[in-house]
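Figure 2 data, in text form.
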Amino acid sequence: MTRKIRILIVDDHPVVRSGIRALLATETDMTVIGEASTEEEAVALSAELDPDLILMDLILGSGRGDRAIAEIRKNQPTRILVLTSFATEPLLLAAIAAGARGYLLKGSSPNELIQAIRSVHKGESWLPPGVTGKVLDHLAGGLSGSAVSEHLTERELDVLRLVAEGCSNHEISSRLKVSEQTVRGHVSNILRKLGLESRTQAALYALRTGIQTLD
């Protein structure tokens, strides 16, 4: 029997969580293992329950979903699909750079949500065409002043691609079979060579230049 996709729902509206739970209960390959309503609850429950996938709202009362995503992805390979009513482009880009693998509006059809969950769970990205265009437009106009002062090594390119995928240092360490200290060193070198200040900027740079893609 195929193992069900274990899902954690993160949304600060009980009615929304209830509706999503009811919808997913109709799918034989999915099960909801928990619900969270705040940034802190999302991080704590993710660590406790170790879900396969998290449905994450970006606006959580006084908290923000992108910060929860970044914290969760530091130590867990959990796939994260953003499901929200709206999001400004900077917040959406921050969520993607933090590790979200997809984005969906709450007004989407139930069938589209189910498809997005299955795609993201398989490691694929899910961005509606309209959203993809906004992301790429932003990337085309951003970081234009960033220049490569030195060539990146093959291993640094490998690390940069994984950073752009939203992988944590722990996950990169596991996938490349090197220590986390080595990964941290590579990330520091990448930022220095590219003249960037953060992992978010590095991820956006990789996407803008084609080193990594959203597909």
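Caption note: The CA atoms of residues 83 and 104 lie 5 Å apart.
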